[in-house]
């Protein structure tokens, strides 16, 4: 799926950024917000962490790139 090693690197950076964004959203939401906005942002945070986990899973199991 990912034959280019540089592409694999950038996709994994996107996954790490999604993880970081999820943590920041969760911390901000738990400390500052209440009500419907809180739960909608927590849902967005959960979606970010699930998507980043799937990206890491695909990158990891796609194996080494051919040289």
Automatic annotation (TrEMBL):
The chain crosses the membrane at residues 6-29, 41-61. InterPro entries: DUF2768. Keywords: Membrane, Transmembrane, Transmembrane helix. Pfam families: DUF2768. This is DUF2768 domain-containing protein. It comes from Alkalicoccus saliphilus.
């Amino acid at each position: 799926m990912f034959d280019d090693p540089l592409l694999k690197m950038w996709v994994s950076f996107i996954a790490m950024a999604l993880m970081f964004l999820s943590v920041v959203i969760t911390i901000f939401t738990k400390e500052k917000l209440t009500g419907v906005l809180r739960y909608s942002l927590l849902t967005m945070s959960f979606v970010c962490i699930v998507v980043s986990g799937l990206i890491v899973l695909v990158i990891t199991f796609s194996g080494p790139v051919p040289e």
